[in-house]
Amino acid sequence: MSEALYPAFGVLLVDDEAPWLRSLRMTLEGPGAISNITALTDSRLVMGALDRGDIGLVLLDLTMPYLSGQELLARIAEEHPEVTVVVLSGLNQIETAVSCMRLGAFDYLVKTDEEDRILESVRRAIRMQELQLENKEMRRRFLNDRLECPEAFAPIVTSNKAMRSIFQYIEAVAKSTQPILVTGESGVGKELIARAIHTLSRGDGPLVPVNVAGLEDNVFTDTLFGHKKGAFTGADESRSGMVEQAAEGTLFLDEIGDLSLPCQVKLLRLLQEGEYYPLGSDQPKQLRARIVVATHHDLSKKKDAGGFRKDLYFRLRAHHVHIPPLRERKDDIPLLLDHFLKESAEVFGKKVPSYPKELLTLLGNYSFPGNLRELRSMVYDAMSVHSSRMLSMNSFRQAMEVQGEVPAEQAAAAGEQNVFYSCPEIPTLSAAVEQLVAEAMRRSDNNQSMASRMLGISQPALSKRLKLQRDGKAE
Ligand SMILES: Nc1ncnc2c1ncn2[C@@H]1O[C@H](COP(=O)(O)OP(=O)(O)OP(=O)(O)O)[C@@H](O)[C@H]1O
Q1: Could you tell me which residues are beta bridge partners of residue 292?
Q2: Parallel, antiparallel, or unpaired: how do β-strands 290-295 and 180-183 relate?
Q3: Residue whose CA is closest, atom 10 of ligand 1?
Q4: 376 touches ligand 1 (CB under 6 Å)
Q5: Looking at the domain 327-414, which fold is it?
Q6: Pocket lining: 296 vs ligand 1, CB cutoff 6 Å
Q7: Of ligand 1's atoms, which has the minimum distance to the CA of residue 193?
Q8: CDD domains of this UniProt entry (predicted)?
Q9: CB of 186 sitting under 6 A from ligand 1
Q10: What's the complex ipTM?
Q11: CA–CA separation, 8 vs 434, rounded Å?
């Protein structure tokens, strides 16, 4: 298995002192895990190397024979403004630093600075360069309006415009080394999106999915980082964790919004430092997997409410893909219906049936709280009992009623869209709210997430209201 170079663009080290170049290279390759490096001791060769076009970052010495660092910096800013330059000088002089920054340097470091400080700056410069390249790439793709790799999205059935823009965005960021956050309600297809990102990523390792919801601290560490033999009672053999298994591939952390706060700290450290320690080991291992995380929560709200660390949130959402719910892309329903009919017909060994055209109206009027997963299971249910030529709409209607939605055509037929139709007196506002909440809890079998969806409020808001009602304080 060949290892992908990091970063995707070249990092050029320029210094006339060969021993310093060697030691810098070792720091970058070792603790920095930066592998795409070229080094030059002759300043006259720099512009030619940049003209070849694969260098994105230059670490530049100032005092050199032939061309000084400052002269080179000015020429790079003029001829290759897309290249990021960090100056690494032997001189700790404010005026020189200011003049280099004015000429367009991203940072000014002194060679005697601590290794960590140099690495941190180089990492920031790489990130900055990656963002610039991604922006450029995104502009190019949006202008082009075509997908470079449509086969990566083949399992995702859609003809929706918003979904197509999402695919273009994914193509633009898939090769970045930064994490990608995928959000969207339950059942919208987040896992399929994570798989597409993996297919388009740079590495050729596997996709390793882990559901991290509610994992205890120790289980999380052991699952992700593995352990050394003897690390705890029962650890008879060393075991590699999922981070290692996903090397050169993708680690897909699902349900990230339900990750406990102690585990959030560990994940943050992994992302910040790019390394981790298996349980019982003092030998660090490098993170070599691409990280994709997904959640059905509104992570921003969770962060504001203190349930999710701010610093981790900002790290994770370096790239953010939000998948719209099915009710916002109803134009996909006919395609999806055909797709799930074909899929289920194969599973049940039946012929693909035709269906009444009213079925599309029925589905189009439904809100699909369970999104595509719900549509899929409706179709499978219908197909499991199907025996004639035409598919029956009965099981679809029943499923909608279970979710608390009276199919629109039925309600219209009864002329009873108004829920107070048969009430001689209407209830007070607070009594109506109380009854609504009680009814949602009854229909959802006391499942607060489902009940809150029916009521169109967040689960914490419902929980607060239930508590107020219990305490007799609801207005
Ligand atoms: N666009 C699509 N085309 C075909 N099938 C889809 C599509 N989107 C989702 N599905 C199917 O719907 C089901 C739910 O998708 P998936 O598991 O990816 O959702 P999810 O958003 O990850 O849900 P959760 O938040 O509950 O983990 C799967 O069976 C998946 O194959």
Answers
A1: 180, 252
A2: parallel
A3: 189
A4: yes
A5: Helicase, Ruva Protein; domain 3 (1.10.8)
A6: yes
A7: 18
A8: AAA
A9: yes
A10: 0.97
A11: 58
pLDDT 10s digits, 304-360: 999 999 999 988 988 899 999 999 999 999 999 999 999 999 999 999 999 998 899
pLDDT tens, residue by residue, 282-310: 998 989 899 999 999 999 999 999 999 99
Q: Do domains 10-137 and 148-324 have the same CATH topology?
A: yes
322 Cα–ligand 1 center, Å:
14
Residue nearest to atom 28 of ligand 1 (CA): 373
pLDDT value at position 415? Answer: 43
User: In CATH, what is the architecture of 10-137?
Assistant: 3-Layer(aba) Sandwich (3.40)
Phi and psi at residue 322, in whole multiples of 5°? Answer: -110, 125
